[in-house]
Amino acid sequence: MDEASILRKIPYVILEMQKNRQEPEVVEGVHLRLVTNEIMIDVDIENERILKEYIDGDTIYELILQDKMTPAYVDQLHSMCVLLYAAHTNIDYFPTNFVVQNGEICYVNFECNEYMEEWNFENWGVKYWSKTPEFMKYVEEHS
Description:
Elements lengths: L2 H7 L4 E3 L8 E3 L2 H4 L6 E5 L4 E4 L5 E2 H6 L5 H16 L2 E3 L6 E4 L2 E4 L4 E3 L18 H10 L1
Antiparallel strand pairs: 1-2, 3-4, 5-7, 6-9, 7-8
């Protein structure tokens, strides 16, 4: 997935809800628009709720469980990471936050945070993008 195709698909602003703030932060910029292709329909700031468009497809989590993961999905995420890291940003890389639609991964979470190496994809997220011991432990604890 190249940057130009991502930009064509995602022409809007993300609202970042941060638990340690009273007010939401509206974040504009190419680096965040590249992360998600959902549409935010409404926001309830008081109750910290976001109404978003439904993206149809299996999550990466479901695909891992069904042994249907492909290297292409990880490659797509690595492409996103290049742009995110350049913008000093991390997202929540847990596989339930990504839906595959028409062969492309869609980030379906509006969470984004200041970049920290310990929470980047290579150091944290990758542990949950295949049937690793960490992934299987999570499945066991949440099934």
